[in-house]
């Protein structure tokens, strides 16, 4: 389990519930994770697995109602972000924790210039004067690889292409030199060749700036390329957590294993038939008393329906899995 | 690009779809009087064949014209010029009534299952609509056919009277597929049928499409930006860039040894779900963005981003030609006369004998 002293961000037992007309939806259930300085944590999961909601909950970015962060603790710089004042939260958001959203089309304000949107956090959080902020803004655009940065500060978001807009988003998130950058599906809306550019940029920036990154995606290929550690989410819970190589070489959760088998590759042998995960992801109308994956799991046995598995450490260091089945022995785990 | 340059198929291979020099230009109007100031060349001279029973994958980045091409082939748009023959009959210039009679043979599965199903119609009504339009079945026969189709795509018959909102994305796509199958078509254009679905659901839909193809002998044009999925489902693959097909080849050959620099870059950009491979991989990172199709560059369309660009590329448009048996590409690197005058040897030619490619279909 995480060592609080060396983590920049430490999340414990986070629980987020949405109140809807058809009842409560338990989107995030007892999620715990930590982030070490300078590491890149990949968070994978299908839509509805709770990966975005988890990260939005950390910074109070979810509209309440309907959302309610019911339990948990988020330690950042010695303070619990779930219990602190709105002012403190505002001083953290965009300053020491940066956020990059999925859709670069809708997350920039269309009626302000890119320069204005870049200067805003610099003047608010860092107290820079307008001219100093302007200078820094140009540096930032240059840093994320936008040519002719100084001139482009006066342009509006619609004058940029999708890939360029995502670069602008990254520049805004980086503006105040954050310790943590949370990137929510930052390349999903982009084409593969542009995605390759952005991934290259992030690798490069990590070396230059050394911040910790949480990278949310549903693309295991992207994760394999950039992450140090991976957290697989399913049904609002952490199904498995491991260093990247360990996860791909030795997946322990039946969901992770199925996911890795179901995706086709561009190299290597081509399967005659794709492996399928039968069924649908669950909708969580109550707190899960059973394993959320049990209905689709080929390994499920009676205990999986009675008890929600806790996260159990496995042989390799830093690898844990929320599953009662042990693939190594081919029998239920003794826990 | 004279005859569209296509592989001569085996003895049993019959061309079901023949597209020649298809152009689809959209006019741009501007100014106070809405005068025509130019045109977006969404599809600009595309030629390909699809053999009976095969799947042709059409890949490319967003905005390259692949969806427009798919729609124009079914004449959901009025093509600017070119010829489209499906099962030997001309589609591009056919009159309204003739075209309507041909519609049952060619159908489409759309990208967004949310937007392509009428929210006010029940599943039975959606699947039955083509039957209302094109057949004179009795009510009971129609219902029997609807149930048969629902079984075929793996939907529970009991849900026939539900509305689309009650279904998940994967199930909605099955409804769309059932509707496309209603009239026993021979050719289906699948326009990004899995792009809106989750990874674990994508495989279910792709397997369904493959099973149906086997059972009913369907021919697909499978449009997608997902290169790994296309590798799985397609027999031959066409790569589009800025309104043109830059490469067309049998699937295995294309993925093993892409010829066109754009195909090479595209394939190298696809992330592989394996950290060991990712570590070793050498990526070709393309600089810049795709130029606007309203104002494509002079010469080769790809010359603004091509890592192997030569002076001739900025001047002369390369012809789409067969460079190896069954493999077509539009690139000066494979043009012997140009490479000779450039004082270089056409190195890629040397490998062609060692890598015999399989013919289409």
Keywords:
heterodimer; A: 335 residues; alpha/beta; Rossmann fold; eight-stranded mixed β-sheet; 11 helices; 14 strands; B: 361 residues; four-stranded antiparallel β-sheet; globular; disordered C terminus
Give the gist of this structure.
Chain A has 335 residues and is α/β, with parallel strands linked by helices.
Structure explained in plain terms:
Chain A has 11 helices and 14 strands. With 335 residues, chain A is of the alpha/beta class. Chain A has one domain (4-96, 176-263, 273-332): Rossmann fold, CATH 3.40.50. An 8-stranded mixed β-sheet of chain A has the order 6-7-8-3-9-10-12-11, with helices on both faces. Chain A has a 4-stranded antiparallel β-sheet with strand order 2-1-4-5. In chain A, helix 3 (114-126) packs across helix 4 (130-143). Chain A is globular. With 361 residues, chain B is an alpha/beta fold. Chain B contains 11 helices and 12 strands. Chain B has helices at residues 66-73, 96-102, 123-134, 139-152, 169-181, 199-216, 227-233, 251-256, 261-269, 275-280, 336-341; strands spanning 15-30, 35-51, 55-59, 81-86, 89-90, 106-109, 187-191, 219-224, 236-241, 244-250, 321-324, 327-329. In chain B, strand 1 and strand 2 (35-51) form a beta hairpin. Chain B is globular and about 70 Å long. Chains A and B meet through helix 7, helix 8, helix 9 and helix 10 of A and helix 6, helix 7, helix 9 and helix 10 of B.
CATH C-level category of chain A = Alpha Beta
Strands of the biggest beta sheet of chain B: in what spatial order? 6-7-8-3-9-10-12-11
Total strand count of chain A, please? Answer: 14
* Integer count of domains of chain A: 1
The helix content of chain A, as a percent range, equals 25-40%
Strand content of chain A: 15-25%
CATH superfamily of chain A: P-loop containing nucleotide triphosphate hydrolases
- Name the shape of chain B in a single word: globular
CATH architecture of chain A: 3-Layer(aba) Sandwich
Number of DSSP strand runs of chain B: 12
Structural class of chain B: alpha/beta
Instruction: Supply the number of helical segments of chain B.
Output: 11
The parts of chain B where pLDDT drops under 50 for at least 5 residues are 1-11, 344-361
């Amino acid at each position: 389990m995480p060592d609080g002293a060396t983590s920049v961000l430490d999340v414990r037992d986070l629980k987020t519930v949405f109140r809807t007309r058809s009842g409560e939806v338990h989107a995030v259930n007892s999620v715990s994770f930590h982030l070490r300085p300078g590491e890149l944590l990949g968070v994978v999961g299908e839509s509805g697995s709770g990966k975005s909601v988890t990260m939005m909950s950390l910074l109070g970015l979810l509209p309440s109602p309907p959302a309610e962060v019911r339990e948990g603790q988020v330690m950042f710089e010695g303070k619990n972000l779930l219990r602190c004042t709105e002012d403190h939260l505002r001083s953290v958001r965009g300053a020491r924790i940066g956020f990059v959203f999925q859709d670069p089309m809708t997350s920039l304000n269309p009626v302000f210039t890119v320069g204005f949107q870049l200067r805003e956090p610099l003047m608010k959080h860092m107290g820079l004067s307008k001219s100093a902020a302007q200078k820094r803004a140009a540096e930032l655009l240059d840093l994320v690889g936008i040519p002719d940065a100084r001139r482009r500060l006066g342009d509006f978001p619609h004058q940029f292409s999708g890939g360029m807009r995502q670069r602008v988003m990254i520049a805004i998130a980086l503006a105040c030199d954050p310790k943590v950058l949370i990137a929510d599906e930052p390349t999903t809306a982009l084409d593969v060749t542009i995605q390759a550019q952005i991934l290259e940029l992030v690798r490069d920036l990590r070396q230059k700036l050394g911040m910790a990154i949480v990278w949310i995606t549903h693309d295991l290929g992207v994760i394999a390329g950039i992450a140090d550690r991976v957290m697989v989410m399913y049904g609002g819970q952490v199904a498995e957590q491991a260093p990247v190589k360990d996860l791909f070489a030795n997946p322990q959760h039946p969901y992770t294993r199925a996911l890795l088998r179901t995706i086709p590759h561009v190299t290597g042998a081509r399967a005659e038939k794709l492996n399928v995960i039968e069924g649908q992801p669950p909708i969580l109308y109550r707190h899960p008393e059973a394993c959320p994956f049990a209905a689709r799991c080929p390994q499920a046995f009676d205990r999986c329906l009675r008890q929600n598995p806790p996260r159990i450490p496995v042989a390799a260091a830093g690898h844990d899995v929320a599953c009662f089945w042990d693939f190594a022995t081919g029998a239920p785990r003794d826990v | 690009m004279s005859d569209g340059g296509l592989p001569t198929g085996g003895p049993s291979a019959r061309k079901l779809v023949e597209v020649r020099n298809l152009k689809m230009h959209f006019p741009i109007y501007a100014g106070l009087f809405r005068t025509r100031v130019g045109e977006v060349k969404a599809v600009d001279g595309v030629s390909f064949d699809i053999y009976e029973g095969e799947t042709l994958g059409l890949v490319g980045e967003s905005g390259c014209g692949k969806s427009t091409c798919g729609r124009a082939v079914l004449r959901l748009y009025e093509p600017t010029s070119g010829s489209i023959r499906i099962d030997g009959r001309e589609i591009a210039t056919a009159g309204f009534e003739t075209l309507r009679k041909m519609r049952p043979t060619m159908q489409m599965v759309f990208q967004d299952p949310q937007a392509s199903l009428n929210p006010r119609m029940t599943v039975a009504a959606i699947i039955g609509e083509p039957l209302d339009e094109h057949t004179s079945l009795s009510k009971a026969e129609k219902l029997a056919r609807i149930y048969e189709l629902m079984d075929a795509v793996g939907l529970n018959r009991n849900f026939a009277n539900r509305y689309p909102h009650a279904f998940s994305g994967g199930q909605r796509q099955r409804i769309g597929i059932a509707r496309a199958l209603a009239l026993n078509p021979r050719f289906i254009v699948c326009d990004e049928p899995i792009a809106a679905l989750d990874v674990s659901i994508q495989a279910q839909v792709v397997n369904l499409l493959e099973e149906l193809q086997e059972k009913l002998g369907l021919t697909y044009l499978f449009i997608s930006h997902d290169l790994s999925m296309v590798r799985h489902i397609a027999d031959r693959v066409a790569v589009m860039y800025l309104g043109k097909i830059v490469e067309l080849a049998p699937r295995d050959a294309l993925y093993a040894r892409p010829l066109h620099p754009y195909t090479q870059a595209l394939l190298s950009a696809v992330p592989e779900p394996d950290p060991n491979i990712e570590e070793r991989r050498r990526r070709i990172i393309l600089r810049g963005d795709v130029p606007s199709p309203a104002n494509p560059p002079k010469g080769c369309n790809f010359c603004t981003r091509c890592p192997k660009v030569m002076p001739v590329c900025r001047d002369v448009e390369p012809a789409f030609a067969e460079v190896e048996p069954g493999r077509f590409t539009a690139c000066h690197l494979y043009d012997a006369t140009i490479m000779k005058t450039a004082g270089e040897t056409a190195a890629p030619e040397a490998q062609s004998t060692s890598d015999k490619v399989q013919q289409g279909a």
